Amino acid sequence: MKFDQKIEKKSSEDNKVEEILKTLSVEGKDVNFDLEGKKYSFKYEYADTGEPGGGVDIYELLINKESVNESDERFIEVKKLFEKVYYIRARFEAP
Fold first, then answer.
1. pLDDT tens profile 18-70
2. Is 60 helix (H, G, I), strand (E, B) or coil?
């Protein structure tokens, strides 16, 4: 190795992203992945209220099959990930 080559060290954040990507799966509208030995499952459902233009988005995060509150930081972060994945899929599935 040349002495002037940069050695890039991965941050712990990079390692987390790599760990997620290795196990990431999208089934229907659910996003699943493993992180630090825990199984994350983010579920999304659209419930039609029967009203014109009415409907409700229902989100649920399970970590090792235990429900996580929507105000929990982990829920918020996983929802952001979900929205990115869902947006990307919508872009590719569009006619």
1. 878 888 887 777 889 998 899 999 998 888 888 887 888 889 999 999 999 99
2. strand
Please state, as a whole number, how many other Cβ atoms lie within 10 Å of the Cβ of residue 62. 15
Specify burial of residue 50 (Cβ count, 10 A radius: 0-12, 13-18, 19+).
exposed
Whose tokens are 């290795």? That residue is 22
d(CA 77, CA 82): 9
Are 20 and 37 within 8 A, CB to CB? no
User: pTM (2 decimals)?
Assistant: 0.66
Spatial contact of 60 and 52, defined as CB atoms under 8 Å apart? no
